[in-house]
Design goal:
Aminopeptidase; 2 domains; 8-stranded mixed sheet; globular
Length: 352
């Protein structure tokens, strides 16, 4: 499969939450030239807008931050200790190559812990806490380490995107580079057919979702659109040991997951579902009884309320170094966003 260069660059960009610089640069490169208006904000969000006088307005949101580690302490031998940025599975942190983002450039290291041979049978059953894992730079002293890195530097796993079988790809940060790509690529395609577009469309690459949807809070407040769709990843539950009775049934390759529940405006849900059927776009439906763990949670309740929907791209092995996605699901998400934007007519609203 030919992988879109824009998606490839986003996936390779290292953007631990709060340190989204590389991903921001990719968005600037690919999206700013085609937008009617483009701006940055204090949170690091990137806003691209088409059809500035259009009515109604719709916001597409996908976050560009990813999981990471934040250096908090350097011991006398030069080993680095850290806190997690975002929700990690602590059992899989050790034994990973990492890239540390410093003021002087990228520094490579390896996460380590006591070898299994040196553990007691009881120790082997325990999940190590962050203070029991370290980053090894291959140095001999604190002074050597401090010449390379500083307290407060962030890092990510040193693991890039790869196609492993047909349209199936793995990457450390499909969450949520897949969603960010979808909302930005939808805008790029809409820019090629602006004469058919009645609505004002804003695509925003949001920041700091992994630590509380923080970029989306300010983005939704500043734009205050009539409609919004957040795009994130969702759990593909078609792998072993996922009980559909508990988590629902969602298939990798089955198309975007359209969410339904109190976090979702019913008019937006119905429109997304009917458009998917009209355009022969495969889709799946998820019922979520609570505020979702996505940007949709805060967008819905910004200002006086925004008619919000949520599309999730099916993903296996979330929050691991090898998240797995079918690229066809990303493409079908882009198509559904384009169809939604083109379907909006003057005077439409989400009041129900």
């Amino acid at each position: 499969m030919s992988v879109p260069e824009f998606l490839n660059e986003l996936l390779d960009a290292r953007s631990p939450t709060g340190h989204e610089y590389e991903a921001q640069a990719v968005v600037d490169k690919w999206v700013e030239p085609i937008a009617d208006s483009y701006r940055k904000d204090i949170m690091g969000n990137r806003f691209a807008t088409l059809n500035l006088e259009g009515d109604p307005s719709v916001l597409f949101a996908g976050h560009i931050d990813e999981l990471g580690l934040l250096i908090t302490y350097i011991d006398d031998k030069g080993f680095l200790y850290f806190e997690t940025l975002g929700g990690h599975d602590l059992s899989i942190i050790s034994g990973r190559r990492v890239s540390i983002l410093t003021a002087k450039g990228v520094v490579k290291g390896v996460t380590g812990k006591r070898a299994i041979h040196l553990m007691t049978p009881e120790d082997r059953k325990k999940v190590p806490q962050t203070h029991q894992i370290w980053i090894d730079l291959g140095v001999q002293s604190k002074e050597e380490a401090e010449a390379l890195v500083s307290i407060g530097d962030a890092c990510v796993y040193d693991q890039s995107f790869e196609l492993i079988n047909g349209t199936i790809g793995v990457a450390r940060a499909f969450d949520d580079k897949a969603g960010a790509y979808a909302v930005l690529e939808a805008l790029r395609r809409l820019s090629e057919d602006k004469q058919s577009l009645k609505a004002k469309v804003i695509s925003v690459a949001t920041t700091q979702e992994e630590i509380g949807t923080r970029g989306a809070i300010t983005a939704a407040f500043s734009e205050n659109p009539d409609f919004a769709i957040a795009v994130d990843v969702g759990h593909a539950t078609d792998s072993p040991d996922c009980d559909a009775r508990k988590y629902g049934k969602f298939v990798q390759g089955g198309g975007p997951i359209i969410c339904k529940g109190p976090n979702i405006n019913p008019i937006v849900f119905d429109k997304l579902k009917s458009l998917a059927e009209k355009e022969s776009i495969p889709y799946q439906v998820e019922a979520d009884a609570r505020p979702t763990g996505t940007d949709a949670r805060v967008i819905q309740v910004a200002q006086s309320g925004i008619a919000t929907g949520l599309l999730s791209i099916p993903l296996r092995y979330m929050h691991t170094p090898s998240e797995m996605v079918d690229l066809n699901d990303i493409e079908n998400t882009v198509k559904l966003l384009v169809a939604f934007a083109l379907s909006l007519k003057k005077g439409e609203h989400g009041v129900w």
